[in-house]
């Protein structure tokens, strides 16, 4: 028997890296293939993440990366719930939200690029539940951890993750206001696309801070392997 040790911070960092690579590489391939126009999607909103990953070689590559990423998301939130439990802050709902988030991401990635009303519904369901459950899981994690993160490095890490959540909430409010105030459908779409890219960037940033937190604590998972 040998003991295998895995550093926990590698999981959230891998999620952030895989998300970033999958989205931007799919966008670049779609740009090279002429499927999307050349612009800064974070500012101009000329294309959505879904459209950037829907066509050409970018589509199978996006799926190939995002489906394993969905597994990592489920593992991460299970680890997060155990991490809180070890500190006397149990949160059984957290792992459930994380699982729902992971399943929704898997559904979204699986049906992205497919045609038909049912497939379109599954894609929309997937991306909506992914962002919604992911955001709720982040808020729940911060709420549970707050009592144990009121000093030193932990406080700065908690504040950084909380600031990212506030920024994500403001993007959601901005999207609602844009739909209500803008009369031009094309401008509404471009605003929604830009906010979607910015939301994805903030989501990845949250996982990076989570990795920083766990790395600072030198956390690892050990198990016996034959």
Describe the 3D structure:
There is one protein chain. The protein has 226 residues and is mostly helical. The protein is 74% helix and 5% strand. It has 7 helices and 2 strands; from the N terminus they run βαααααααβ. The protein has a two-stranded antiparallel sheet with strand order 1-2. α6 packs antiparallel against α7. The longest helix has 32 residues, at 185-216. The protein starts with a strand and ends with a strand. The model has no long low-confidence stretch (mean pLDDT 85).
Helix/strand-derived category reads mainly alpha
Order of helices and strands: EHHHHHHHE
Q: Tell me about the biggest sheet?
A: 2 strands, antiparallel
Distance between the termini: 5 Å
**Strand order in the largest sheet:** 1-2
Q: Helix amount, in percent?
A: over 70%
Which regions have little confidence, pLDDT < 50, spanning 5+ residues?
A: none
